[in-house]
Design a protein that fits this description.
elongated; alpha+beta; Translation Initiation Factor IF3
Length: about 110
Amino acid sequence: MKALSLILILFACLGACVSVPPLTERAKTVREIPSSLAKDCKFIKMVEFNHRTFALSRNSNSMTALGNAGIQNAVAETGANAFVLVGNDSNAFTETVDYKAEAYRCP
């Protein structure tokens, strides 16, 4: 019984490390725009999302999903409703995600 409990706890911890964070309600309204459309918007600030996954089963698709969700949530926290992605480095080998964006308030 004790071994089963330990295994369940281990899987729960690994599952938490591997999962992509859900979008917040505010982040669901944030959109990525091309830099050509940003001229009609108000610049809010530069936003970064950096994360180290510490997971054993990362692949490039899940790393990209993690970066996209992370930067969208970070942009939403500034009160912006759009962003121009200026950097999106994700590396499954080193298990790191580093995204940068310009946050904007657009009509």
